[in-house]
Amino acid sequence: MSQLKLGLRDNRTAFRPGEEIVGAAGWQLDRPPKSVEVRLFWYTCGKGTQDLEVVDTVRFEQPQREEARPFRFIAPAEPYSFTGKLITLVWALELVVKPGDESARLELTISHTGQPIVLHR
Amino acid sequence: MIQFGPRLGTVGKIALSVFFLAYSAFALLMLGLLVVQTVRTAQTFWWKPVQCTILESRVIEPGHDTDSYAVAISYRYSWQGQEYTSDRVTWSGKTWSDYGAAARYAAGYPVGSQATCYVNPAAPAEAVLEREGLWFAFIPGLILLVFVAIGLVGLWAIWRKQPDQAKAAAGPISAQRSQALATGFIGVFCALFLVVGVGLFYALFLRPVGRVLEAQHWQETPCVILSSRVRTHHGGYSVEVLYSYVVNGVEYKSSRYSFTRWSSSGRESKVAAARRYQPGAQAVCYVNPADPTDAVLVRDFTGEMWLGLFPLVFVVFGGGGLVWVLRRRGAKPSTRPVVGAPILIKALDSRAGPLQPPAGPLVLRSTGSRLGKFAGSVLIAGFWNGILAVFLVEAIQSFQRGQPEWFLAIFLIPFVIVGVLLLGDVGYSLLLLFAPGVKLRLSAAAVPLGGSAELEWEITGRATALRKLRLWLEGREEAIYPSGENTSTDRATFATIELAAPTLWTDIRHGQVRFTVPADTMHSFKADHNRITWVLRVHGDIAFYPDVDDEFPFTVLPLSPAQAAVS
Questions:
Q1: A104: left (phi over 0), alpha (psi -120 to 50) or beta
Q2: How far apart are CA B517 and CA B528, in angstroms?
Q3: Which ipTM did the prediction report?
Q4: Which one is predicted more confidently, A97 or B311?
Q5: B532 and A82 in contact by Cβ < 8 A?
């Protein structure tokens, strides 16, 4: 059984635009991977059809079956994490191993206040 | 992505399935018939060529149940010492809408001449004079395949297993591509629309107009009218006339009245034309000097030819849709894999760089200008009512003839109601054109969260007609989702910031206000299906007239990273 983990420095999951997102990805796989990468992306959920954009990717060179690697991103300027009546926008990191469908995900908040923007108050 | 499943109940799913099954089955049946016909035609390519003698060759004029010309060509051939005769020209038969074309074909097989015909060795009594190419099946086959695919995709969309939320959470979300399939289908449809539109535009407008220009140089020739009548088709009438003329001592016949070949409404004009060309009357026709079988009675540009512009609607919708799909696909973001050191520090991408509001001031325009709205409503109402008119005229005339088509009349009622509503919208849009206009001037084209701007308004035109005015800034969510075969948009307003509400005429006509966008709200955001939209709204109350209700898009920017760090 493969195991994938994502961790962030100081377990911090809320960031302001421009701040560093520093963490490590660890994996223990049943077979040698062809590629391992961490993606920084946002997606929407709610009433509308889901939109999604991968903003940045860190691909690890020559990944082994069992390993831990650090990564670092810069929190993008936009869009902010927000939640409304119809739409919620979530930022996330995802560790993706190929071949296969295995992944691990960690949700983040990115906004100028460090909190998700609540639209209807 | 095409989604039916989660929004339909079982009854809805079954009803839609029956529809798509019937749709696919009908298309499959047609496809099957086409395949059988194609196979039968293809078999003639294995038949043996033999010499044959033409016994009869003439044009068959249309009877009351058909408006096509055919040829009667019989021929004699021998196979293994036995003599046979046949009158089969091609396997599926050949007809022409024009006498001249049929005559040209028959002239290729003069009586007594020798020709090559093709005999079925397994049944020598079967023979054809010509083997047809198989291209006739290509376009209909392609279209039928598309119809079959539509039905099957519809069924798949109804019954496909919805992604399990838990499973979806386990798989990589970031690998999902929500729009690829849908845009692919839309692209195929738009391309089909475009191809069909261009083809029809060429056949119905460009070619007839080209022939009109060509015929201006044809020879004026006296001709005798042999027969003339008005033929009734579904939804229209056409003049059918047969005339003869002599070129270089040879008598020719033609049935071409003008270069338009379709029927249209307006029975009176067709009856008048048929009366003008009574049987036995002398007239002038125009003959192609390069081909005496090619003639026309009216070589001018006729009013019906404007109908040939109708396929441009397909071209505009198909081409526009295709451009939209291509731009949408081209705009799809892609990941930017970078191979590098174990620790990779990624630079901000361009969209995440310092955000500078564009320099102001800015004069804002309405999202849908009133003229644009009016033109749009005229176009839609014209398109709808134009098509409807063809059937409506048919229904009305059926009553005038004393043979009322009740089914057609009842069937048309809901369509007529929609047509009347669309005409009402045209009237409303027309009135709005003469309502007072709104012009806004902003000190900055875009304002960051927490930022301020100066707004100046001016009412143009009949400003005194306004009893009161209200200006406000509105922030709203917009979510687009599939609903059946269409898409729906839900909106929810999350911010309403009142800017001004003058009631005095002088204040209504012109004024200014400074406003601040709240710092703790969301900036403008636009994705394919989810948006945060900010608009400046203006509402003016007018007595006994459509109110002024304009909306101006307004951009609220996120803070730059430097501003965000200190906020």
A1: beta
A2: 25
A3: 0.93
A4: A97
A5: yes
